[in-house]
Every structure is written in structure tokens, then in C-alpha cells.
Design a protein that fits this description.
This protein is α/β, with parallel strands linked by helices. The protein is built from 10 helices and 8 strands. Strand 4, helix 5 and strand 5 form a beta-alpha-beta unit. The structure holds NADP nicotinamide-adenine-dinucleotide phosphate.
């Protein structure tokens, strides 16, 4: 064999990386609430999916996976596995990206769900910094770190789990249902997240990436702690399975027309004002 031919064979052998034929979906904050129900719903949706349950806690995510396996048993169709990712820790995000690259060679859907409300009594600056660190900076850095993997997908999606609480138009609407709720820092962070989703929609359009900010509705979850969870149940907050069903529709492309519209993609269909 000539040296040149040997060199070509060597280069092609080592430059071709394995790319999964599954639709690879990462849900951040998947050990609890809306993220957990979304991972669960995706797990039964298609054998063509591989669902990565992102969590900052290895213990919590293992418990979540055990729970899914116990509850769903044979109705699980997709591959499911855990991925450690703390959206406030750049090294952790980078390690998660490297792991996805090694295992799957690409990422098809990124559901940026991890989020917080600071409900403990702390000073305003601490509350603002913590809120923005997770709900805005964490989402931005996660997406931009995953960008090269999303570019390898045939039909990539980036979802930002936002909130109608971030809508500036609704804040000033006297008819708005949740007008009495304060939560200024949380509202500001979700408004910034809506702008981030609009910027990424614009920036990523040339490589066909669909980007959306999603309104999951007011749901029972651990977002405001145990007491908050009880209060949500008492006041009739929705089941987090509802936004999970809507997010499965997003992954199947059933909400593509809404994603084209100018606004927050709503769990019940259509869009809400930014
Ligand atoms: N529930 C609602 O009514 C509602 C309404 C509108 C929007 N949302 C949005 O929906 C998303 C999910 O919230 P949820 O209601 O399901 O609350 P949740 O039950 O508290 O779930 C939030 C998830 O985010 C994770 N998380 C927080 N900080 C993180 C970080 N730095 N890195 C990685 N993961 C992190 C949490 O992990 P730990 O368990 O380790 O804390 C948890 O898994 C949030 O973005 C929230 O703003 C919720």
C-alpha cells in the first residue's frame, strides 16, 4: 500500500465520528416538576428518542430515572439516561457537552428548563444575582456551549421554558389574571429570557434551528418549596403533565407554525404576547 493511500485510510478512519440515529433530547432540571414530567412523557413517546435527564444532582437524577422505570415499566419506548449538568457551572456544562458528543455525536433538542424563584428572605441584589445567574446566564451559556452539537442535527430545536410572568405587555394589562402577583426579579429574568430566545431565533435562523420561549402555565412543582407546592395544589394550579404534553408536541414538530409567530409559545396552543 502506498504511503499516500495509507494516510487517506488513516485520516478517514479517525475523522469519522459516530453520530446517533436517535433524536437526542436534553432536558435540564429534569429531576423535578415540569422537567421531570417532560422527560417522562418523552420516554413513552417514541423508540426513536434518547432522552437525557439533566440534573445538577447525580443522586436526584438517579432517583428520577428509577421512578420513571418503576412507574412506566414496559411502556418506556425511548432510551433514557442521566446527565450531570449545573447550568451555573461552566465546567459542568462543558463536561456535559463533551459527554453528549462522545456518546451521540450531536444534539437534536435542547429543553432549557432549569429555573428558580428566590423565595427566601435575602437582600435585593443577592436575589437578583441568583435569579439571573440561573434563569438567564445559565440558559445562554448552556445553549451556546451546545451550539456545535445542535448544528449537527437535521432538525434542531432550542426551547426556553419561560413564563407569562415575564410578559411586559401582560404586566401592564389591567385585565391580566396574575396582575396581583409581585415577583419582580423572577418576572425580569423571564423577560430577559424571552429576549434571549428572540436573539437566538434570529442568530440561528441561517442553520435552520427553531428557537422558542415556552409558557408552561401555573403548575404544581417545587419551584417555591414545600409550602408553595401545597399552596399551588390548594389554589388549583395545573398538573405539570400538561406542559409536558405540549413539549412532546414541540419535539414532534406539531408546534412549528406557532414557533414562527411573534410571541411566547403557549402550552394550550397559539402564542401569548412577549
Ligand atoms: N411551576 C410553574 O408554575 C412555572 C410557571 C412558569 C414557568 N416555570 C418554569 O418552569 C421551569 C421548571 O420549574 P418547575 O416549576 O418545574 O420547578 P422545580 O420543580 O423546582 O424544578 C426546577 C428544576 O430546575 C433545577 N435547577 C435549578 N437550578 C439549577 C441549576 N443551577 N442547574 C441545573 N438545574 C437547576 C432544579 O434542580 P434541584 O432539584 O436540584 O433544585 C429542578 O430540577 C423553570 O424554568 C420555571 O421558571 C414554572
Amino acid at each position: 500500500m502506498s504511503t499516500l493511500l495509507a494516510k487517506i485510510i488513516h485520516q478517514s478512519t479517525y475523522s469519522v465520528k459516530m453520530v446517533s440515529n436517535k433524536t437526542v433530547i436534553l432536558v435540564t432540571g429534569a429531576n423535578s416538576g415540569i422537567g421531570f414530567e417532560t422527560a417522562k412523557a418523552l420516554a413513552t413517546a417514541s423508540p426513536d428518542f434518547h432522552v437525557l435527564l439533566g440534573s445538577r444532582s447525580v443522586e436526584k437524577v438517579q432517583k428520577a430515572i428509577d421512578d420513571i422505570k418503576t412507574t412506566l415499566g414496559d411502556s418506556i419506548k425511548a432510551g433514557i439516561s442521566a446527565l450531570q449538568i449545573d447550568v451555573c457551572d461552566h465546567d459542568s456544562i462543558k463536561a456535559a457537552k463533551d459527554q453528549i458528543e462522545t456518546q451521540f455525536g450531536k444534539l437534536d433538542v435542547l429543553i432549557n428548563n432549569a429555573g428558580i424563584i428566590v423565595y427566601e428572605k435575602v437582600d435585593a441584589l443577592t436575589s437578583l444575582r441568583r435569579t439571573f445567574e440561573t434563569n438567564v446566564f445559565g440558559q445562554l451559556i448552556t445553549t451556546e456551549t451546545m451550539e456545535p452539537l445542535l448544528q449537527k442535527s437535521a432538525k434542531p430545536y432550542v426551547v426556553y421554558v419561560s413564563s407569562e410572568q415575564g410578559s411586559i405587555s401582560e404586566r401592564l394589562n389591567p385585565e391580566y389574571k396574575y396582575r396581583e402577583i409581585r415577583g419582580d426579579h423572577y418576572r425580569m429574568s423571564k423577560a430577559a429570557l424571552n429576549m434571549l430566545s428572540a436573539c437566538h431565533r434570529y442568530n440561528y435562523a441561517d442553520w435552520g434551528c427553531r428557537v422558542l420561549a415556552f409558557n408552561p402555565g401555573w403548575c404544581v412543582s417545587n419551584l417555591t418549596g414545600e409550602k408553595g407546592r401545597e399552596m399551588r395544589i390548594k389554589l388549583g394550579a395545573r398538573d405539570p403533565k400538561d406542559p409536558a404534553i405540549a413539549l412532546v408536541d414541540v419535539v414532534f414538530g406539531k408546534r412549528d407554525a406557532d414557533i414562527e409567530k411573534n410571541g411566547l409559545v403557549d402550552l394550550d396552543g397559539g402564542v401569548r404576547p412577549w
